[in-house]
From TrEMBL:
It catalyses: orotidine 5'-phosphate + H(+) = UMP + CO2. Its EC number is 4.1.1.23. Keywords: Decarboxylase, Lyase, Pyrimidine biosynthesis. One of its GO terms (molecular function) is orotidine-5'-phosphate decarboxylase activity. The gene is pyrF. It comes from Ilyomonas limi. Residues 16-285 form the Orotidine 5'-phosphate decarboxylase domain. One of its GO terms (biological process) is 'de novo' UMP biosynthetic process. It is an enzyme of class 4 (lyase). Pathway: Pyrimidine metabolism; UMP biosynthesis via de novo pathway; UMP from orotate: step 2/2. This is Orotidine-5'-phosphate decarboxylase. Belongs to the OMP decarboxylase family. Type 2 subfamily. Gene3D superfamilies: Aldolase class I. InterPro entries: Aldolase_TIM, OMPdecase_type-2, OMPdeCOase_dom, RibuloseP-bd_barrel. It holds the Pfam family OMPdecase.
Length: 303
């Protein structure tokens, strides 16, 4: 699915809800637990009950990979079952040296029919590039995440580092250090305002692609920073997880994060798929998804 088709789906369905299929085999309702393909049966029922109230599904691969071959089979069955009208995200948080990333891209874009995959950008451009080389597919790069650990690196204040070049000179008996122009630049850099590392990541990564192949993750628990994120990447879609179980506010996310094309996919996982632990799990998931979708209606109408 390309960007304009996604925007069209959002307007048609009047929501920007992404439902997270973080399906934990240990949390399946008792009546499904003994079925050989219980995870797929659970996902299928959730998709049937919610597809009218969302535009996207996000499969968090961890919950499937943890179960080995059976998990990969359930993931494949699930992604094949998601209707073609819905944007399919593999939340795999990949990224490695170029030739390895190329294999990850092949996994999710060729072997499996995902539209997008989440990427950890820590290893830099060559680790992201292979995901950008596909038409109508997206790399969704971690920008500012919703978890506490975001403070460890993403929210560090940093400044541009510049090469300090020292020139040494021997004049008579004296050893002198002669500083070059580059050092003067470094002196100037001290006056530049410090920036968060995540801001520099957004700025740099956005130059590697376009809004047609690149989205960013911004946590719903980070609403104070959403306006700054929008200034750096005004046109890219943002995948915003953290509404529901993590306490993020859909209203605040929408107020700060929407752009002229809507530009948001707000993900809710546990608060939808585990809305009930009983036999009515799918019906309750449908009700929860409808609730989020209805709250999004007026925001879409104003775009
Ligand atoms: O990349 C993600 O999807 C992600 C980024 C982030 O900053 N925070 C975050 O919670 N996520 C994912 O979004 C989902 C949130 O799930 P719930 O908290 O249950 O709605 C999980 O699959 C997380 O792995």
């Amino acid at each position: 699915m390309n960007r304009s088709e996604l925007i069209q789906q959002i307007h048609q369905k009047e929501n920007y809800l992404c439902i997270g299929l973080d399906t934990d085999a240990a949390k399946l309702p008792p009546h499904l637990k003994d079925k050989p393909d219980a995870v797929f049966q659970f996902n299928k029922a959730i998709i049937d009950a919610t597809k009218g109230f969302c535009v996207s599904y996000k499969i968090n691969t961890a919950f499937y990979e943890a179960r080995g071959v059976k998990g990969w089979e359930a993931m494949e069955q699930t992604v094949q079952y998601i209707p073609s009208t819905h944007f399919k995200i593999a939340d795999a948080k990949r990224g490695d040296i170029g030739n390895t990333s190329a294999q990850y891209a092949k996994t999710f874009f060729e072997t499996l029919p995902f539209d997008a995959v989440t990427i950890n950008p820590y290893m830099g451009e060559d680790s992201v590039r292979p995901f950008l080389e596909y038409n109508n597919k997206f790399a969704i790069v971690l920008g500012l995440t919703s978890n506490e650990g975001a403070h460890d690196f993403e929210l560090l204040h940093v400044c541009h580092t510049r090469k300090k070049q020292e020139v040494h000179a021997e004049i008579g008996k004296h050893h002198l250090k002669v500083y070059t122009e580059e050092l003067e630049e470094e002196e100037q850099a001290k006056d530049e305002p410090l920036r968060y590392l995540y801001e520099m990541v957004l700025e740099k990564v956005s130059s590697w692609g376009t809004p047609d192949n690149l989205m960013f993750v911004a946590g719903a628990t980070r609403t104070p920073e959403l306006a700054a994120i929008r200034r750096i990447v005004p046109d890219n879609f943002l995948l915003v997880p953290g509404v529901g179980a993590q306490g993020g506010s859909l209203k605040e996310v929408s107020e700060h994060g929407l752009n002229k094309d809507v530009g948001l996919l707000v993900n809710v996982s546990r608060a939808v798929i585990y809305a009930s632990a009983g036999e009515d799990f799918a019906a309750q998931a449908g009700i929860a998804a409808k609730g989020y979708s209805e709250k999004m209606q007026s925001f879409v109408a104003h775009r």
